[in-house]
Write a structure and sequence with these properties.
196 residues, alpha+beta, Peptide Deformylase, five-stranded antiparallel beta sheet, two-stranded parallel sheet, 9 strands
């Protein structure tokens, strides 16, 4: 089932999410619905807060990037085959010289900006069966994970922009929070836009 994606301005996007355990109600169904929702919106990642749940879970599927000509065959193969659910993740290390990449977010449609992030991460997380893993990632996969991880920490990519950029985007962000935007996927706008 495709769920509505929470829009910029909803308080759930600014909350630090809480851990869950294997008794979390209907977890398998939730994960299936989240993948369906992400694919329905042509996303490469989706965090639980983006569907209104302040829990520490996100999923990533970087296969759409594999079609891009900017990557070597090896990089494209990695991107094509990377699909993973992260439950209760903790980024243990981030390293390397920060690099810029133009990021967007399903909760902030039609806004794309360069965001600087470190290229390598080490992350600990649990899979759908609650087995614990510690893995290292770099490049675009690391970046998508960092972006989604920020969501469960209550951080949006727009929070990482300069105050000048934030001022330029202020009107656009306000319109998104009021539901004054057209998107081709289901969205849920903050309560103030429903009071009209």
């Amino acid at each position: 089932m495709i769920l509505p994606i929470v829009a910029y301005g909803d308080p759930v996007l600014k909350k630090k999410a809480v851990e869950i355990d294997k008794d979390y109600p209907k977890l398998d169904e939730l994960i299936t619905n989240m993948y369906e929702t992400m694919y329905g919106a042509y996303g490469v990642g989706l965090a639980a807060p983006q569907i209104g749940l302040a829990i520490r879970m996100f999923l990533v599927d970087t296969s759409p990037f594999a079609e891009d000509d900017d990557f070597s065959e090896e990089e494209a193969a990695q991107l094509k085959n990377f699909k993973k659910t992260f439950i209760n993740p903790v980024i243990l290390e981030e390293e390397g010289d920060e690099w810029a990449f133009n990021e967007g977010c399903l909760s902030i449609p039609d806004v794309r900006e360069d965001v600087f992030r470190q290229p390598k991460i080490k992350i600990q997380y649990q899979d759908e069966d609650f087995n614990t893993h510690v893995e290292e990632y770099d490049g675009l996969i690391a970046r998508v994970i960092q972006h989604e991880y920020d969501h469960i920490e209550g951080v949006l990519f727009t929070d990482k922009l300069s105050s000048f950029k934030k001022r330029i985007l202020k009107g656009k962000l306000l319109n998104i929070s009021k539901g004054k935007i057209r998107v081709d996927y289901r969205m849920r706008f903050p309560a103030m836009s429903r009071k009209r």
